[in-house]
Specification:
The structure is a single chain. The chain is mainly β. The protein folds into two domains: about 35 residues; about 130 residues, Nucleoside Triphosphate Pyrophosphohydrolase. The protein has two helices and twelve strands, in the order E-E-E-E-E-E-H-E-E-E-E-E-H-E. The longest helix is centred in the middle third of the chain and has 13 residues.
């Protein structure tokens, strides 16, 4: 989110150094607002379903991009582990058969996000919600990872499972 005006007093914000970095801040000393622009937490699921990994395509994405199931960590979520299970249920209609296992955390600077990635073993019938338009079922040994954010989580999980994954070459946009 980019601010032009202070959300507390409506004064135009200025780009000034704060704690060693350029930040938008309110020039009104009585207000003192600083836009820290901290990353937004996102959970990602490496969904294992019937010995395959599920990759999905969001309705807003260009063809042929498929990725992990992701969603925002919401303030009412009791934990990131429960948030990732909620996302798997909401987006794929699947239920976890065991607790989510943490894979790692990954920066996604383009969207100012920090991704908390988990492996989720799930069962049920895949039913896509309105955010998704397609999915693929891929055996782990045939997966290739994309060299950014959730793709790095997939790579790390594949390595932990004894696989030697190859990187995809991403098309230039």
């Amino acid at each position: 989110m980019s601010f032009r005006f202070c959300p507390q007093c409506a004064t135009p914000l200025l780009d000034k150094p704060v704690d060693g970095a350029q930040r938008l801040r309110c020039p009104d000393t009585a207000c003192g607002f600083v836009h820290w622009d901290n990353p937004v937490p996102v959970v990602a699921a490496i969904v294992e379903h019937e010995n395959h990994i599920i990759l999905a395509r969001n309705a807003a994405w260009a063809v042929p991009f498929y990725a992990l199931i992701t969603g925002f960590l919401e303030k009412h979520d009791p934990s990131p582990e429960e948030a990732v299970l909620r996302e798997v249920k909401e987006e794929l209609g699947l239920d976890a058969t065991q607790p989510a296992t943490f894979v790692g955390h990954y920066a996604f600077p383009r969207n100012n996000q920090i991704i908390l990635a988990y492996h989720v073993v799930a069962e049920g019938t895949i039913t896509l919600n309105e955010e998704l338009v397609d999915y693929k079922r891929i055996l782990p040994q045939k997966l290739r990872y994309w060299p950014a954010a959730t793709g790095l989580a997939l790579r790390d999980w594949l390595l932990s499972q004894g696989h030697t994954p190859e990187a995809l070459e991403l098309p230039k946009l």
